[in-house]
# Entry
Amino acid sequence: MSRRQAQARAEDVARAAYGKLIAMLASRSGDIIAAEDALADAFVAALKTWPDRGIPDKPEAWLLTVAKNKRIDQARRDARLVITDEASDMADAQAIQPEETQLDERLKLLFVCAHPALDEGIRTPLMLQTVLGLEAEQIAKAFLINPATMAQRLVRAKKKIKSAGIPFVVPEPEAYPERMGAVLEAVYGAYAADWLESDGELSHEAFFLSNILAELDPENAEALGLTALIGFIEARRDARIDDGVLVPVPEQDVELWDRHLIERSASLLTQASLRRAPNSVPGRFQLEAAIQSVHAARSVTGQTDWRALSQLYTGLMQAYPSIGGAVGRAAVVAEDAGPAEGLKMLHVIAFDGLDRYQPFHAVRAHCLAKLGQTANAAEAYAKAISLCTDPPSKQWLEKKMSDLRKKMS
Amino acid sequence: MRYTFLLYSDPAMAANMTEEDWAKSKEIYGQYIGALQEAGVFIETDWLHPADTATTVTLAGGEKRVQDGPFAETKETLGGYFAIDVENLDEAMKWAEKCPHVHYGKLEIRASAMGSV
# Structure
């Protein structure tokens, strides 16, 4: 096996199993930093030995055993533990525990990160890093924070977990209301981090976790809402990219949608609404899931109900205002009431960072193009393209831009 | 794990307390101490004279300096503490919520660093 293949395989295992391995390494000592160091060492060892000896049968077990040895090595330098392949093979059988135990371990880590003794703002970043293995730099970008500051805050939180004695346990059900919100936020954050990637391992993991959480706390309407929301988006996985180019939801081929998953998500959303107090405002995830359910209905009705979407976005913006919701609402209004109305909605948005927010320029360009203001539209598309970081969206914007150019000439 | 609860409050509140209030307070704290002892987690507790009677000593900078008063002038001051021995922070937080002090002051939980460095 080539070094490159070994590296690719190690990285695959790393992404898929990161949280499990960290949780298993840290749960007894509470020392996440030591667990991360040991796991990083194990990855280095994998890159060294896998190209020559082939990938072990159970790569996760191999990494765990090596990491455990590294950590013991670290703790007791006198012991002079020698890491041999025999040792890891021997441990293969016992090292990785049954699927259920692993799951518990990762859930424990999720709840540790959502502990009320940790600053609210660090909970989601901490989960993204320790449970799902995102780099501090990626997280900093998502949270619009300086990477060095983010790294510093993450280290501080991990030190507190150990020194304050935050336990690695799945809490009693009475603690769910206090802890579940942060856990759900982080899971959604993880889903959003790579949902457009073709392999999308992180988003698969996030969907998996949201299902577990909905099972763990079936009375929690937002846990059901989040699982429905991710389910609706997942159902469109095969339809959203065509030949490397993004396909907007209203233009997707509904034959490519996963009908079973759509039905399941719709039923979860109904269950969520039954768990809610009468006349209470639905949680954010339920509202966003409701928006996705309207899109999904096109597979049955053959058309998008823009009026319903416009009303749902209004509700979303009243209860949970966000820059994404504001721009999404303008895009929907542009379809329902016309591009001039959409443009008006865009111009009253007052969120910081609007000028650097790619969807704002994309929706603006779309409205301007429809109004025949081609020169302004082209300018807005160019701005959107310059801000776009994911290739499928970028290609789609470029296609729109070239369509516009053809019209102009 | 050993945890210390540091009890902070505004001393002006104590100044307004009547004999009756003190008796009641003593009883409530007595019950709390009893509960801690019954659970087998109690280590010790103390109740301190007001912060304006404090003497602060430092040798930082190589020279002995003695200050009449607390190290920092704040509205809420340290008035006492509890030391308990429980499994983890979740257990400590449960006991903290039961402490009578939290109804009028702030309680800071700190884990013992003894033996961890």
About this structure: The beta strands of chain B are 2-9, 42-47, 55-58, 65-68, 77-85, 106-111. The mean pLDDT of chain B is 90. The first helix of chain B runs from residue 11 to 15.
